[in-house]
């Protein structure tokens, strides 16, 4: 891999509004999505907005999964950033799509940390 990581940006439309407004369900789905892809979870932080919507992040050893929801529109913005070769962000993305019952998804992948030589996210800097 000549990039440090892969960053999937997903737009989920036609999702179940009740799920998108339920902090506990969103947290459970995001944590499960990370585990489904084989990620190692470090920290979890989620917030419920008034009158609606949830934002949160699952910090993983390999980077993060983040979300913001608009239940009134059936919409969720999701980003999944993974470093290294062991965790596939698309596994998490597809899991989230299914659990939100999304009718449509637009997603793309951005390579992060692109170099013109072979890199490893675990390279050691000599000091």
Summarize the structure.
This protein is α+β, with helices and mostly antiparallel strands.
3D structure, described in words:
- The protein is of the alpha+beta class and 127 residues long.
- It has a single domain (3-111), classed as S-adenosylmethionine decarboxylase.
- 23% of the residues lie in helices and 43% in strands.
- It has helices spanning 17-20, 23-36, 89-99; strands spanning 3-13, 41-48, 54-60, 63-70, 75-83, 104-114.
- Helix 2 (23-36) packs antiparallel against helix 3.
N-C termini distance = 25 Å
Strand order of the largest sheet: 2-3-4-5-1-6
The helix/strand order is EHHEEEEHE
Give the overall pLDDT as a whole number: 93
Looking at the overall shape, the CATH architecture is 4-Layer Sandwich
Q: Say which CATH homologous superfamily is assigned.
A: S-adenosylmethionine decarboxylase
**Structure annotation, total helices:** 3
CATH class: Alpha Beta
Principal-axis shape: globular
Task: Count all strands and give the number.
Answer: 6
Give Rg in angstroms: 15 Å
Strand content: 35-45%
List low-pLDDT spans: none
Number of domains: 1
The share of residues in helices is 10-25%
Structure class: alpha+beta
